[in-house]
Amino acid sequence: MNEMSSTGSVEKPVVIPIEAYVSEEYAKAEGERLWPKVWQIACREEELAKVGDYVTYDILDESIIITRSAPDRIAAYYNVCQHRGRRLTEGCGHANQFYCRFHGWSWNLDGSSREVVDQEDWDGALNDENLRLPEVKVGFWGGWVWINMDPDCEPLEDYLGPAATLLAPFELDKMRYKWRQWLYFPCNWKTALEAFNESYHVTASHPQLSRWVCYKHWSRAEGRHAHHGVAAPRGEGATGGSGLNSINVRGSDDPRVAVAEQLEELKRTLDTTTTDTLVNAAQRLVDELPEGTPAHEVAAHLMETAIREDAERGVQWPEMTHEQMEEAGFDWHLFPNSVILPGLTFALCYRARPNGHDPNSCIFDVYALERFPEGEEPKTEWIFEPDPTEEKWRLILSQDFGNMPEVQKGMKSRGFRGARPNPKEEVAVINFHRILAEYMGSGAPKPIV
Ligand code: FES
Ligand SMILES: [Fe+2]
């Protein structure tokens, strides 16, 4: 099916039926066939720093408590009182017990029963075993805590497969939250996520970035997951560039100036995929390098300076070869619902979840990670920011957000023939639906006829 090239896969042109995006039955079936069977990112380990810290992770009708139950143990439980079913927690916080506010039953952090009010009334029928909070599998990778509701699931490392290997050199576990925001979005969770697992849209949707360089991208499946990276400049000649981890300038630009402007713009319009260290070092390039310095030397000088200055403040860069970076690419779709754009000292991440069984609504989380000096990590929390505007989400995300509900509306038109992703640049979209169909039993991409 896949014809591999040195950079990516080339798919046969396919059409993706709209069922997965718009059908209420399909959305409901996901609650049975997909979500209880897959590994999902529940939170970052840093959210559970102390014993008793907890996060509530909601997915459709399920709610799961993830907590640090002991200094060296993180556990997850179904968030349901074993008396008559009240939810025990919401949001995140700190607790020394899980207490039900309905009739006052409680549980210890290790999931064992702490108190049943008037337990003798049950005449011995309730015991330690049948009172325990039912556990959910947890896994750890990349600094995230993952959960899986399937007691017979494969280990997380196997589930991630080659994605874990290719992403390992970024040492994502060493990054901490820089900022995190979320909102409800009027589109299917897949429509939302697919605005971020390809970069084919960048030239049209983010026209201001075309001032630097427009690229074509390779895109490749890695088991259930998929990634993409820079293949070749689109249009006018350009030098340098491998996406987020290098610099991109047109041959006619002074690379010292272009790089500084580009990084400043990313800082201003996205506030991630670059760092203050890089921006500050880039701003000094015109003072530190003579006019006419070739782009690759400008890039090398910028990286050396940033690595040195980060080291001075206690931020170590991971050791990663150029080949490793090229192979990893800059954007990963981790099946089913996370997208991660890894950099050497930063990452931009997205997570999309259904909002109930309405196929036209989702919960969308966006967060930036960064390496900080130990003890200088910013204190962050989830900010609900319902207004999808440039003012609240900065320019780049507001441009992406502008597409998502319009796609959701458009797909329902009698005049729509189904989605026809680019067979080279949107392999991640095709792979997503191929894997999804294996879980769901329908909705697989079909050849265009
Ligand atoms: S429902 Fe929780 S104590 Fe009654
Ligand atoms: Fe975008």
How would you describe the overall organization of this protein?
The chain is an alpha+beta fold and 449 residues long. The chain has a domain at 40-152: 3-layer Sandwich (Rieske Iron-sulfur Protein), CATH 2.102.10.10. It has helices at residues 19-22, 24-33, 128-131, 156-160, 162-167, 189-193, 202-205, 255-269, 276-283, 285-288, 295-312, 322-328, 390-410, 427-440; strands spanning 3-4, 9-10, 14-15, 40-44, 53-59, 62-70, 73-78, 92-94, 98-99, 106-107, 113-115, 135-141, 144-148, 176-185, 214-222, 225-234, 238-239, 249-250, 331-334, 338-342, 346-354, 362-370, 383-384, 446-447. Helix 8 (255-269) runs antiparallel to helix 9 (276-283) and helix 9 (276-283) packs across helix 11 (295-312). The longest helix is centred in the C-terminal third of the chain and has 21 residues, at 390-410. The radius of gyration is 24 Å and the shape is globular. Strands 15-16-19-20-21-22-14-23 form an 8-stranded mixed beta sheet, with helices on both faces. 28% of the residues lie in helices and 27% in strands. It contains 14 helices and 24 strands. Strand 9 and strand 10 form a beta hairpin. Residues 201-202, 205-206, 400 line the site of fe (ii) ion (FE2). The site of fe (ii) ion has 5 residues, from helix 7.
